[in-house]
Amino acid sequence: MKVISYDTGRVTWLFPTEEFLPLGSGDGRAIIEQVAEKYEFSHPPQNPSREEVEKNGLKFGGGRFVFDGKLFVINEFVAYNDGIVAVAPATEPATAFLEDIVEFLKEAFQFRSPITPIKKVSVSNVIIEFDGPINSMLAEHEAFTNLISGYLNANEGTSFPAKLSRLDFTQDRGASEKPVSLPKWTLEARANVPISQNRYFSSAAIPTKQHLQMIQEIEAIFLKRTAGSH
Hints:
Number of helices: 5
Strand order of the largest sheet: 2-3-4-1-5-8-7-6
Helix content: 25-40%
Number of strands: 8
Distance between the termini: 21 Å
Oligomer: single chain
Order of helices and strands: EHHEEEHEHEEEH
Structural class: alpha+beta
Radius of gyration: 23 Å
Shape: elongated
């Protein structure tokens, strides 16, 4: 497997931001200006109204942050009433950025540590190419793929084989669980690229590093099946 590109890494920290804000009246304009200056945001908020902030959050765009000796773009940083979000090419620099900005706000503007435990959610998107066809996972179910091919080819009178173009997994927590947004993993053939090229868009509700490790292990299963079928 090879990584074609890191699409996005989105990290969300959920907590009541009223517990995070400094007590008393802080200088909102000064905070925005210093955050924009420190992280070189090219698109800081421009005099947003209270209503705009409550509806869409306080948004910064196009920042820069050094993580692990490398310079990363912070595509977006947003502060909402119920948490903060950072978007970068991968979740690791996004997480490091949130850790850094929280400490900066505490030191410079007397922000506080939230009382409520922070719920941290990561979603990573990557574009990868497998070293072999993942369609091999269906090799033991030839009747299944032949059935699908027959129906898909019937109207046009063609004979193209059916190939796996999308996988979608989510958790099953049972009927007794409260309705929640469940973590998912989606693997989808890259648009406008032949499936034979084995290029896929992969999205998972886990950090980027773990995401890539999972895909490598999955690929090993695919390739093992392919080798075993010869």
